[in-house]
Every structure is written in C-alpha cells, then in structure tokens.
Amino acid sequence: MHMSNPQPIDTAATMSGAESLVRTLLACGVDTCFANPGTSEMHFVAALDRIPGMRCVLGLFEGVVTGAADGYARIAQKPAATLLHCGPGLANGLANLHNARRAQSPVINIVGDQATYHRPLDAPLTSDTEGWARPVSVWTRTVTEAASVGAAAATAVQAACAEPRGVASLILPSDACWNEGGEVAAPLGPIPAPKVTPDIVQQIARVLRSGEPTLLLLAGRALDEAPLADAHSIAAATGARLLCTTANARVARGRGRFPIERLPYYGDPARARTDGIRHLILVGTPAPATFFAYPGKSSRPYPDDAVVHVLARAEQDLADALAQLAAQLDVPRISAPHSAPTSHELPDGPITSQSVAQILCARLPEQAIVVDESVTFGHAFYPGTMHAAPHDWLQVTGGAIGDGLPLALGAAVAAPGRRVVALQADGSAMYTPQALWSIARENLDVTVVLLSNRKYAILLGELAGVGATPGQVALDMLSIGRPDLDWVKIANGMGVEAARAGTLAQFAELFTMANARKGPFLIELII
C-alpha cells in the first residue's frame, strides 16, 4: 500500500486515544474518512479537527458511508476509514460492508461504542457491536484502553490490505478515545500474498494440454490488465474458454484492452454458455453457484459432471499464478485485439438496453469509471461497451442492492480528474439516495444515468423463475409507481442538477453535456 506523507511519531507527546488513532491512520497512508458520527465518536471528530491531513466526507446514511469506502478502495487500491455510531449505525451500513467483503475491498471500519463502564447499564444503544461486525470483516477487535488504540489501528490496516483484502473492523468504546495515554504506532509491513506452488501449476498445465473442453474462470485481481493478458494467451494457445465471474469488483476494459465475458446471471443461460465443459479451472474464486435456487434446477451454473480444479485461491498471488502457468505451457504472449472503430452514428427508435448501450459506447469519456447497478434493463450495457474508450467497470459484488450511488461517490473521491458514470436502476437507487447529497457537497464529477422504469423488474423475472403467476397484490409489491418517483426533483432537492430524457436523442445530448462539464449531473432516463 502506498504510504502518503506519514506523520512523525512522537512517543513523548501526551495524547488521547482518538488522537493516536488519527495519527496512526495517517502514518499508515489512510487519509480519507467517510463518516456518519454520533455522540460516542465526538472525540474522534474533535481529533480530526485538530490534526491536519485527513479528508472527511460526510454521508447522511451509514449505507452511503460503507458503500463509498468500498468504491474508494476499488479505485485507490488502498483503504479509507469509515466512522459509524454504535451497533445500530453499523447495522445500517452492513449491507454495503457485505458488498465490500465480496469485492475484497480494504476498509478500516471504525465503530464507536458505549464507554466500558457504561455498557453494563444497558443504555438504549447498547448492542453486540462486535458480533454484528464479525461476519463482514476479515479482522475484528474491540479496544478498551487508550494506550492500545494506535497499535490496533496499525494492525487493522495491515489486516485489511492482506490478500484477500477486506474489512477490518475496529470498535472503540468512547472512553478509550477520550482517555489520555494514546500512542502512535508505526506502520506494519505488508503481508505478501502466498504464491502457487509449481506442482499445482504443472497439474493445471496437464489439464489444459489434455485437449478436453476446459473453462478458465477468473475473478478478483486476475482481472487486472497483466494477468488478464496472460489468461488470454493461455486460452489462445490451448483452446480453453475464458470467462469471469458474474459480478466483479473492477474490470479494466475498452479499446486496446483484452475483453472478457461474464458468466451469465441466470442459471439456464450460464449452463448453456458452459455446455460441454469437462474441466473448470478456478482463478481467485470458489466454484460458482447461481444467485438463487429454483425448483427442479441445478444450483451449479456449469455441467454437474465437470471436474473442478483450483489454480489459485483468492488469498494467493493471482497474477503470479497465471504468469507461472503461461511459462509452464510456453505460450506466446498475444496482443490485445484491435477494436473496431466506434460508430458515431447514434441509434434511433425506441429506448432499449441495446440502443442505450450504443450511446454509452460512443460517448463514454476516456478513462471513465463506470459503476453498474443497472440491474435488469442494463443487460446489454457490459457487452455493448466492449469497444468504448478505455475505462474501469465496477459492479455490486454481493447482491445487496443500493451500492451503486455510494460506489460512485467513493470512486470519484479516489480519482479526481476522471469522470464517474453511474448506471443506476431506480428501485435500488432509493436505498441510498442520500449519496447524491454527498456527491453535490463534494462537487464530484459524477454523471448519474437513472434508469426509471418504476418497478422492481428483476423481481418480476424471479417471480416467473419460481413458477408463480402474479396477481394484483404481487404486482403492486413489485411496482414503485403510484405515485411515480420524480428523480429530477429528488436530485435537485439533494443539490444535484438534473434533467429528464424520454428519447434516445435527448439522452445522447444530455449524456454528452453532463460528461463535458464539472460537477455532478443526473439524467432521468424514462424506460
């Protein structure tokens, strides 16, 4: 992890636990905090005021805070801190901490709590804070003494950045923050990812040389540019198929980069895509499963008789594993395919997933960051933007909706100078619309394409998937109309300029304008 402007470590100075926390985080290169603080965190807030160097971004809901920390980590490749208020504040942020865990995003999740002597009195906010944090965290600790706060913070950063990276939850009773005796801890060295042993590489090479139909399934850091190039070279030389998992933290794509298809979301298309596969080789992912079970259908999105092999687990050095495999097979390194020129002719006719994808492909800015929570309508967006300008593509990795706008907030904070384009379904946007306020307050370069179909369209498909015939009660539960949401007014109320598009021409004009200007803009696209 990059260490930015470490603070001097002065063990002679008297400081509170909260001050030692801030100074240790800065020394460890953690210089951004997404916060929704309460009473128990006021000493940390005061320390942030006294100690320069930490950028603080306020979120009006904890799910915004945790999702923003996830988006920041995916782009910055280092952790931000969160600041949450007691167990209920943590609970409000759990869904997007779940997404961050699935994305393997490093996050320093700081949760204030009741003072140690106050906790036995069972005040209203008292809860099992550590118990709630543990399932979404790779490391969890409650620190009860000011003198131990700095050391715990340094350990949290080390744990969050170790492969597979994740959420490190540091729970701080308020007296551990206000008491004197805090000490600044020096940064701990990174824990190197273990490398795959040569015998495993040789076994996988034998499978690929067998000539039997084989699929390489990639995830995590195997989708970085260099390992993805190795994977394409291996596939080209051996005839293996190549896919990535359905939802990915970050994929570098666009013109001049290697494309990669995703394993389809639904089981039947996924099984059709993997039909005939005899061997499944996993790189950075466990064996995939369908998102949900369906009556009478397999939970495996690949043939039941396929033999599953593991080249590398998520905690191992995925780039090195693919490089070793390419060397073992002695495959020639291939270049990224030449992309066909992007047509500047804009589509006409109805607003469909394909026609919107054509506009996105033609008008996406160079080095944009695309945050995809387009859900059902966006099925053509990922394949349809293969030849767009070079960009990074971020997805909601854990299936908990409401991460798109917070991811866009965090990514924009991490990458000033790059345009963030959030492709956002309306139903899931309503989980965390407060992110728009934070985006406006920070004046971030974010274009939100709000896909307004006024229904939970994905659930209509799921209803059919389990064989149910919807009646009016069911349809009413899956509709978010009556009254219709007015996203132009919602955005304006949060401080974001906005306009509505009802035709492809209007959308193309607004999308081009929004990406050329500074600051945020929301386009409500009526679909």
UniProtKB/TrEMBL annotation:
Residue ranges of domain Thiamine pyrophosphate enzyme N-terminal TPP-binding in the record: 15-120
Keyword Disulfide bond attributed: no
Keywords for the protein's UniProt record, in alphabetical order: Thiamine pyrophosphate, Transferase
GO molecular function annotations of the record: acetolactate synthase activity; flavin adenine dinucleotide binding; thiamine pyrophosphate binding
Keyword Transferase: yes
Family: Belongs to the TPP enzyme family.
InterPro entries: THDP-binding (IPR029061), Thiamin_PyroP_enz_TPP-bd_dom (IPR012001), TPP_enz (IPR045229), TPP_enzyme_TPP-bd (IPR011766)
The Thiamine pyrophosphate enzyme TPP-binding domain, residue ranges: 390-524
Name this protein carries in UniProt: Acetolactate synthase large subunit IlvX
EC number(s) given by UniProt: 2.2.1.6
GO biological process: small molecule metabolic process
